[in-house]
Amino acid sequence: MFKNNPLKKIPRSPRACYTYTLLFCLGLIGFAIYLQTVMSLAPCPLCEIQRLVFLLIAFVSVIALLLKPSYKGICWFSGIIAILALLGALIAGHQVWLEIYPPPPSTSCGMSLSYLFKVLPFSSAVKMAILGTGDCAVVTWRLLGLSIPAWSFLSFIALSLLSFYTIKVASK
Questions:
Q1: Is residue 147 part of a domain?
Q2: Residue 58 structural domain
Q3: Residue 40's domain is classified under what CATH number?
Q4: How many domains does one find in the chain?
Q5: 88/57 Cα distance (integer angstroms)
């Protein structure tokens, strides 16, 4: 019916899905580094946590690619990726919420994640990083009207959907 059916390009193997997941995560991390170094946009603690989640998803994808798991293993790896992606979506969604309903100006501190862990006790640093600071509510850059955390949220949702699709592909 269609000569150039775009659906033929959808990955049909778990390896292809893990490869796309890995490349997507590395591309996002590379773009984040570009925004930080070239555009001079300093990441807030929530942004740094989201980068860490993207790195963890990429790491799980590499392990899955190297081990060539059976169906049960694919379910495990894809499940881990889905959990990480949904956790990342939760964090990014929280940051979008902070952008819409910013905290009072007195909560702005501008501390990086590494500085938080150097200065504060572990539990306090984790709490402050997850709750976000005033800097997490500042929108410094947009693409097509969406902020970086909004794009991050959409990316995490896409990764979770891809992980479920990977299980579906493996079951055939």
A1: yes
A2: 12-170
A3: 1.20.1550.10
A4: 1
A5: 10
**Domain annotation covers residue 57:** yes
Q: Are 129 and 51 in contact (CB under 8 A)?
A: no
Question: Mind listing the pLDDT tens digit for each residue in 41-53?
Answer: 877 888 888 999 9
Phi and psi at residue 34, to the nearest 5°: -60, -45
pLDDT in tens, 82-116: 999 999 999 988 888 887 776 665 444 456 666 66
Contact 113/142 with Cβ under 8 angstroms?
no
Per-residue DSSP letter, 45: H
Other C-beta atoms within 10 Å of 61: how many? 27
Does 4 fall in a domain? no
Q: Is 147 helix (H, G, I), strand (E, B) or coil?
A: strand
pTM: 0.75
In whole angstroms, what is the distance from residue 159 CA to residue 89 CA? 10
In a domain, 82, yes or no: yes
